[in-house]
Amino acid sequence: MAGQVRPITLVGTPVLHRPCRPVEDFDAALKGLVDDMLASMYEADGVGLAANQIGVDLRVFVYDCPDDDGERHRGAVVNPVLELPALEDRRLDDGDEGCLSVPGPHARLARPDHATVHGYDVRGAAITVEGTGLLARCLQHETDHLEGRLYIDRLSARARKKVLKEYESLRAEAGAGAGAGAGAGAGAEPDALPG
């Protein structure tokens, strides 16, 4: 596969906590960035990854995950705009969510079970991606990243504190056990999210 694996930026890194800049140039550099993002996502066993998760302040994310019917969807969305069902049509899925930038812990987070993202592909052509199930969660999760928001920012103060405490504990264990579990479970994102 094309693309170079880049390190995943972790919670606390400034680029993760501020809105990203819109992409203006649909060029070879953007294509290279998307290739690197896909390689990095696959290396970390994620199902989605936003550009700021590899330290790049641009509004682009990649994804490779199934929908409610088990159909796998893969791609990249540049300058995404998220659209959710109207409140009266909205059904919530309160599944577990995790993040490659907060490796290890997961938490229950209710999100709409259907989501649509409008944006552009790497060539600048308009695209729309609709998702249910894990794909809907992924589209919302990755768009949040580009707004400078992590999933833990949507949790109650208590749940957020618990996730961060578990994350810090895992990092301390990984640091103490030289080489044990590189990244403290960064690759373990089974039914959760990636980015």
Q: Can you tell me about this structure?
A:
- The protein is α+β, with helices and mostly antiparallel strands.
- 26% of the residues lie in helices and 26% in strands.
- It contains three helices and nine strands; from the N terminus they run H-E-E-E-E-E-E-E-E-E-H-H.
- The chain has helices at 28-43, 133-146, 157-176, and strands spanning 48-50, 60-66, 72-83, 92-93, 96-99, 102-108, 111-112, 114-120, 126-132.
- The strands form three sheets. It has a five-stranded antiparallel beta sheet with strand order 1-2-3-8-9, with helices on both faces. Strands 4-7 form a two-stranded antiparallel sheet.
- The model is unreliable at 178-193 (pLDDT under 50).
Strand order, main sheet: write it out: 1-2-3-8-9
Uncertain segments: 178-193
Q: Give the proportion of residues in helices.
A: 25-40%
The SSE order reads HEEEEEEEEEHH
Globally, the shape reads globular
Question: Helical segment tally?
Answer: 3
Q: Which structural class should the secondary elements be placed in?
A: alpha+beta
Strand segment tally:
9
The largest pleated sheet is described as: 5 strands, antiparallel
Proportion of strand residues: 25-35%
The rounded Rg comes to: 16 Å
Mean pLDDT, nearest integer?
A: 91
Could you give the distance between the termini?
A: 20 Å
